[in-house]
Design goal:
The complex is a heterotetramer. By secondary structure, chain A is mainly alpha-helical. Chain A has three helices and no strands. Chain C is mostly helical. The chains are: A mainly alpha, B mainly alpha, C mainly alpha, D mainly alpha.
């Protein structure tokens, strides 16, 4: 467990989260959200929670993002905020 | 200062999860776009998962898979060598719950879009008021 | 088999829900019988359980054969069993009464509807019976997700948005609860309710436990639609399809109120909740505001169903206020009011669903002259209305009576004033409808012209009417026996918990 | 609204921050969370269930009841998506075809169709994407390997990270890959809606069915140890096998539900045109 790495990834997680909710394009939100999930997954594997990290990698960064993109494709990319 | 620093190092993980949780909650309440609210919801949920996983971690602990030899003492297995597995189990369930909620919410958002052709909450509300 | 009843109670509807969804792809006709079977068995099991716990006092069931702090345990005391009986009764009767409607509204997806219906009941039964804090969260999410989708199937213009708002609020609620449980876990290291109760006393003064309690409480209050957090409730329940509305509206909020009482009694002790942290008086005053706001908002509605949803908000105020006054009488009143409110809200929503067959909408004007057309259905509506107002011998009177007694005992006179005031407002609310239905005749001459028109608004079919009448009789029956209900079942458990 | 949101957020964040002062330091091996319940799992898991991966043994055995409801939650999400979105009647009136030998697209209006017997035409999506040989071939190569990996993850959950849920998601993803790389109709032809629905119910039914068998054999619900009476193994190995059976059920259910959610979300419930 390297705390510098931990802190760096935590910062990236927060940056990704803020970017995902502020960017004005829903497709970009989807991708940023995927990145956020992937950072989360890294964080958990650092903390030795391998099963949780595996699940997050397959669900959060994988299938969730696909659902998200599919839904954006079926609705709209436009957003005001 | 010394006190603050020890606290910072000891608990920064907990503090950052609170920051993430605040971001998610803010997006859920203040954002106007329904999909953005959904993203906020997911961030909120993952922040809680991060909190639980942080609870389970131990300094110097390894992954909770018992291997022959590692961490064994003459009295059996020493739990201090492995991180606490219980929060991991709970959080597997929480991840599943969050993806289920996400799926249902996306289905509802698509249904709303089919009817109103927009995902902005204020525009939908004005449409409702007009009709 | 008898010792496995606590597990079977939840597992039988669960298994039948899966079987129903599988059957909906193979043999559609068997969906309804399976659903009826899947709800009838828990109904009988809950009767047997009530009998068992009445004799033995307490039943504990270890799932998977693991002892409690490590495995998950079910804890059943008489209070649980009573709520279980109410939930399973309402679910069973509602399915019989609304099956025709379900088959008509969702002909091509009735299998999915029945499966969601049963899973909703699985969630609620599990919430009531479980003795594990995290298991409660999972079951809460089952009940919520099925609830979201059942509500989302309603009025296509408004229901999806109402349901999505419910998703957001419900998820915040569930997450707050989960955070609270996480704080409890980090301080005690346990998730089992009995175990946590034993570990907590030395930690009562710590800020973490106080914050944990507040977050659990706020989360559950969001789910039950308690006053400042009730914004999702009126829309969600108004636009739900009527078979789902008569299921969700009576059960979800009341079961959550029961969870609150359970958290106070059997996780955090009453001494912690009522005296260690000084919020009980504040919560009671908030409940008073909830009662008044609910009643006034109900008064301003012309849509009867929307009016009833605001009455639910006001009823939640009764229950929360009663629970937080903090003495055994008021707490017993609150528990009795949970049972009564389940029955009366169910009766009023069910009869409203039956009335809606004969009217065009839920506006008060549509009710004109209904007594002539559908006398029996309207009679059940009147009974449930009188019960909500609180007129003896209907059950609503008795729980209000105990609430008032408790409030006098606790010296909380504001609560009494508010309670009486809201009863007065309820009188106005319901007599407005009764007057319209009894004395006003529709301006269109539908009744007097042709025979065809009167056939179109004939009495409700028997398959709906018999359960409806049964529920109305149950309301009076519960009212008459509420004295013994309090003395034999509720009071002993509550007093033992409060000591 | 924004100010109110900020107020609520700061209030709840402040409360949570205030409460962290009583927390044990991060990563402390002597915190109550690590001392009270969990040591028993770590010490006894191997001898009581025969599963080295403690997370799996808690997930499927000690707290197996939670996991059953977790699978039920995902099943609920699947039928909720089906219920909310699925449209049986709506078929779009305009259909697009591609003439395979020449690559010319034809737009057929007014609900008419080219009979499916003619092999020269294939139906395509309204927003036509070029037929990409590389993507198609690569995904066709990839799918069996993804599925093999998924089966490994399910079956090897006892010894390594993974298990029914992750494996099920990967299996579902392998079918979603087909739907994305080709089109939704191809994927549905391979893995139909009816099979999908039945499998999602079957998966969860396997889980709770194993629990119910334990009740029929006279033990508590989900007490896999009693399966030793019908399986020719010891009690501990019966627990291990019970966990495997449960994981397989979870895998089947999760796969079917993931495909169901994707199909309904990507095509708005019409099941004709996907992503």
């Amino acid at each position: 467990m390297i705390w510098q790495l931990d802190l760096a990834i935590l910062t990236l997680v927060i940056v990704c989260a803020i970017a995902a909710i502020t960017v004005k394009d829903l497709l970009a939100t989807a991708i940023l959200f995927g990145a956020y999930s992937f950072m989360m997954c890294l964080l958990w594997s650092i903390m030795a929670a391998v099963d949780v990290a595996f699940t997050e990698a397959s669900v959060g960064a994988g299938v969730s993002t696909v659902f998200f993109v599919a839904a954006v494709f079926r609705t709209t990319r436009r957003t005001k905020d | 200062m010394e006190f603050l620093f020890t606290h910072l190092v000891a608990k920064y993980n907990f503090w950052l999860y609170i920051v993430l949780m605040m971001i998610g909650l803010y997006a859920m309440i203040a954002k106007n776009n329904l999909i953005k609210k959904l993203v906020g919801m997911n961030i909120f949920q993952t922040a809680i998962i991060l909190f639980y996983v942080s609870v389970g971690s131990k300094k110097g602990g390894t992954i909770p898979i018992i291997e022959h030899g590692a961490g064994h003492t003459p009295h059996g297995i020493d739990p201090a060598h492995y991180v606490n597995p219980l929060p991991h189990v709970l959080m597997l369930t929480a991840i599943v719950v969050s993806v289920s909620t996400f799926g249902v919410a996306l289905a509802l958002a698509i249904k709303i879009y089919q009817r109103y052709k927009t995902l902005e909450e204020d525009e939908i509300l004005t449409r409702i008021r007009e009709s | 088999m008898t010792e496995n009843y606590p597990a079977l109670l939840v597992v039988v509807p669960l298994l039948s829900a899966f079987a129903i969804y599988g059957c909906s792809w193979l043999h559609r006709k068997s969906c309804l019988p399976l659903a009826l079977l899947g709800l009838a068995i828990p109904f009988f099991i809950s009767i047997r359980l009530l009998k068992t716990v009445f004799i033995n006092g307490h039943v504990s069931y270890h799932l998977g054969g693991w002892a409690p702090p490590w495995g998950i345990a079910y804890e059943i005391d008489p209070l649980n069993a009573l709520v279980l009986l109410a939930v399973s009764t309402v679910a069973f009767i509602n399915l019989i009464a609304t099956s025709g409607q379900i088959e008509r509204i969702f002909p091509d997806r009735k299998g999915a509807f029945y499966a969601l219906y049963l899973l909703f009941i699985v969630g609620l039964l599990g919430i009531v019976v479980t003795g594990d804090l995290f298991n409660l969260y999972v079951l809460l999410e089952i009940a919520s997700i099925t609830g979201y989708s059942l509500i989302g199937m309603g009025n296509p213009d408004r229901a999806p948005l109402a349901s999505l708002n419910y998703v957001f609020m419900g998820t915040i609620g569930a997450c707050f609860y989960l955070l609270g449980v996480g704080y409890i876990y980090i301080m005690t290291g346990s998730l089992n309710m009995v175990d946590v109760k034993g570990l907590l006393p030395p930690l009562y003064h710590t800020s973490a436990i106080i914050v944990a309690f507040i977050f659990c409480l706020v989360g559950i209050m969001i789910k039950m639609g308690f006053f400042p957090l009730h914004f999702w409730l009126p829309n969600a329940y108004t636009y739900a399809p009527s078979p789902a509305a008569s299921l969700i509206a009576p059960l979800m909020t009341k079961v959550m109120a029961y969870v609150m009482i359970r958290l106070i009694i059997s996780v955090f002790s009453p001494s912690f909740a009522f005296s260690s942290i000084q919020i009980s008086r504040g919560v009671v005053w908030l409940a008073c505001i909830a009662i008044i706001v609910g009643a006034v908002m109900a008064l301003s509605q012309r849509d009867v169903r929307r009016m009833l949803t605001y009455i639910i908000v006001s009823e939640m105020g009764y229950i929360v206020g009663g629970a937080w006054i903090g003495n055994a009488t008021a707490m017993s009143g609150a528990v009795l009011h949970i049972i009564n409110d389940v029955l009366m809200t169910f009766c009023v929503f069910l009869s409203l669903g039956a009335i809606a067959r004969s009217t065009k909408g839920y506006q008060i004007e549509n009710f004109s002259g209904l007594f002539k057309k559908i006398p029996v259905t309207m009679a059940t509506f009147v009974v449930s209305g009188l019960s909500i107002i609180g007129i003896p011998p209907t059950c609503g009177f008795f729980s209000k009576w105990y609430l008032i007694l408790g409030a006098i005992e606790g010296g909380h006179y504001g609560f009494i004033v508010v309670l009486l005031l809201s009863s007065l407002i309820n009188i106005i609310l319901f007599f407005r409808i009764f007057e319209e239905a009894f004395f006003v005749y529709p301006k269109t001459n539908a009744v007097h012209t042709e025979g065809e028109a009167s056939i179109a608004i004939a009495e409700t079919p028997f398959v709906t009417l018999i359960p409806l009448v049964l529920t109305a009789i149950l309301l009076i029956f519960t009212g008459i026996y509420s004295g013994s209900l309090i003395a034999l079942i509720i009071k002993p458990v509550v007093s033992a918990g409060l000591l | 609204m924004k100010k109110l949101a900020l107020l609520i957020v700061i209030l709840s964040g402040g409360l949570l921050l205030y409460a962290t002062k009583d927390f044990p330091p991060w990563g402390d091996p002597h915190s109550p969370a690590s001392m009270h319940v969990s040591p028993r799992y770590l010490m006894k898991s191997l001898e009581e269930t025969g599963v080295p991966n403690v997370v799996t043994s808690i997930l499927a055995d000690y707290r197996g009841y939670d996991t059953m409801f977790e699978t039920t939650v995902i099943f609920c999400a699947g039928i909720a998506c089906f219920m909310l979105l699925r449209k049986f009647e709506a078929q779009s009136k305009d259909v697009y075809y591609r003439h395979i030998p020449t690559g010319i697209t034809i737009h057929v209006k007014g609900g008419k169709q080219i009979p499916p017997t003619s092999k020269e035409f294939e139906k395509i999506d309204a927003i036509w994407t070029p037929y990409d040989l590389i993507i198609n071939t690569v995904s066709r190569f990839l799918v069996p390997f993804i599925q093999l990996f998924a089966l490994y993850v399910i079956a090897h959950g006892h010894h390594s990270p993974g298990g029914g849920f992750q494996g099920g998601v990967i299996l579902g993803a392998s079918i979603i890959v087909v739907a994305i790389a080709f089109n939704l109709r191809t994927a549905i032809k391979r893995f139909g809606e009816k099979i999908d629905g039945i499998m999602s119910a079957l998966g969860v039914f396997i889980y709770s069915g194993i629990g119910a068998i334990c009740v029929l054999l006279g033990a508590e619900f989900l007490n896999y140890g009693t399966l030793a009476r019908i399986l020719p193994v010891s009690k501990i190995m019966a627990r291990s096998h019970g966990i495997l059976g449960v994981e397989i059920g979870v895998g089947i259910a999760v796969m079917a539900v993931m495909v169901c959610i994707y199909n309904n979300v990507a095509s708005e419930g019409k099941h004709d045109e996907g992503l």
